[in-house]
C-alpha cells in the first residue's frame, strides 16, 4: 500500500511561494493557501505582513496572536498598540514600517471549545518551514534595517543559538536568506505587558528602538 504524504509533512512553505514575484499583494494571496506545516489546520487564516512595500525598516515578530488570527493582520492586539507607541516615542513612524512575523499561523492550546485560546511558542521546525515567506518579503521590501522582536524571531533569522538578552539594543550585520542585513534585536512587546515592572520594561524597549532610529539616520 502506497501512502501519500500531506504537503505539511515536509515542513516547508517553499512549494507555495511563487517564484520571481516582486509584489507583496501576490505573495499575500499565495500565502493564504499555504499548507507548509500543520499549523494551518487549526488557525483561522494566514496572517501575512502589512505595511509600505519599500519600507526602510521591517519589524519581525514571532507569530500571530488571538486577535491577529481573527483579523488577519499582524500586531493588532494589545502588544501591537504598545509597539506603535514605543516606535513613535523612539522616533520611528509606525505607519512607515513593514510589520510581519516569522511564523504566519497562530499556534495555540485550548482546553475545550469556546474557551480562551492560549498562545504556544512555535518550534524551530515550524519557524524554518515558514522561512521562505520571510525570505520573499525581504526580497520585495529590501529594508535598510530589520528590528527583531523577541527570541523566536531572532532564532528564525539568526539561528537557534540566538539570545535576545545578549544582543538587544545593538546593531548586527548578518547574511539573512542570501542578503546582507543590518538588524537591531529587542524584546517582544508582549513581554513588556507581562513584566513585573512594566514601566522599566517599556523604557528598555524604547531605548532599543532609539538605537534602530539612529541606525536609520
Describe this structure in words.
The protein has 217 residues and is of the alpha/beta class. It has helices spanning 24-31, 66-71, 78-90, 124-141, 151-158, 164-167, 189-194, 198-216, and strands at 50-51, 57-61, 98-101, 108-109, 118-119, 145-149, 172-176, 179-186. A 6-stranded mixed beta sheet has the order 1-3-2-6-8-7. A hairpin with a 2-residue loop joins strand 7 (172-176) and strand 8. Helix 4 (124-141) packs across helix 5. The longest helix has 19 residues, at 198-216. The protein is globular, with a radius of gyration of 17 Å.
Q: Please give the number of β-strands.
A: 8
Strand content: 15-25%
Q: Helix fraction?
A: 25-40%
Question: What's the average pLDDT?
Answer: 95
Helix/strand-derived class? alpha/beta
* Strand arrangement across the biggest beta sheet: 1-3-2-6-8-7
Which tags fit this structure?
six-stranded mixed β-sheet; 217 residues; single chain; 8 helices; alpha/beta; two-stranded antiparallel ribbon; 15% strand
Offer a concise description of the structure.
Helix content is 38%, strand content 15%. With 217 residues, it is an alpha/beta fold.
What is the element layout, followed by pairings?
Blueprint: H1 24-31, E1 50-51, E2 57-61, H2 66-71, H3 78-90, E3 98-101, E4 108-109, E5 118-119, H4 124-141, E6 145-149, H5 151-158, H6 164-167, E7 172-176, E8 179-186, H7 189-194, H8 198-216
Parallel strand pairs: 2-3, 2-6, 6-8
Antiparallel strand pairs: 1-3, 4-5, 7-8
Helix pairs in contact: 3-8, 4-5
Amino acid at each position: 500500500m502506497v501512502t501519500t504524504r500531506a504537503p505539511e509533512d515536509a515542513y516547508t512553505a517553499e512549494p507555495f511561494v511563487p517564484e520571481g514575484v516582486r509584489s507583496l499583494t501576490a505573495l499575500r494571496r499565495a500565502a493564504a493557501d499555504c499548507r507548509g506545516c500543520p499549523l494551518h489546520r487549526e488557525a483561522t487564516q494566514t496572517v501575512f505582513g502589512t505595511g509600505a512595500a519599500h519600507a526602510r525598516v521591517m519589524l519581525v515578530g514571532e507569530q500571530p496572536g488571538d486577535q491577529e488570527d481573527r483579523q488577519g493582520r499582524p500586531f493588532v492586539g494589545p502588544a501591537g498598540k504598545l509597539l506603535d507607541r514605543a516606535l513613535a516615542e523612539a522616533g520611528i513612524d509606525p505607519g512607515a514600517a513593514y510589520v510581519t512575523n516569522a511564523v504566519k499561523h497562530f499556534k495555540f492550546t485550548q482546553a475545550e471549545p469556546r474557551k480562551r485560546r492560549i498562545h504556544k511558542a512555535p518550534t524551530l521546525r515550524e519557524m524554518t518551514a515558514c522561512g521562505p515567506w520571510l525570505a520573499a518579503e525581504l526580497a520585495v521590501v529590501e529594508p535598510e534595517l530589520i528590528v527583531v522582536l523577541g527570541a523566536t524571531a531572532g532564532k528564525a533569522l539568526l539561528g537557534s543559538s540566538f539570545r535576545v538578552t545578549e544582543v538587544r539594543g545593538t546593531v548586527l550585520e548578518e547574511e539573512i536568506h542570501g542578503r546582507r542585513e543590518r538588524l537591531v534585536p529587542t524584546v517582544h512587546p508582549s513581554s513588556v505587558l507581562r513584566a513585573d515592572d512594566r514601566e522599566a520594561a517599556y523604557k528598555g524597549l524604547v531605548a532599543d528602538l532609539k538605537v534602530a532610529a539612529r541606525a536609520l539616520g
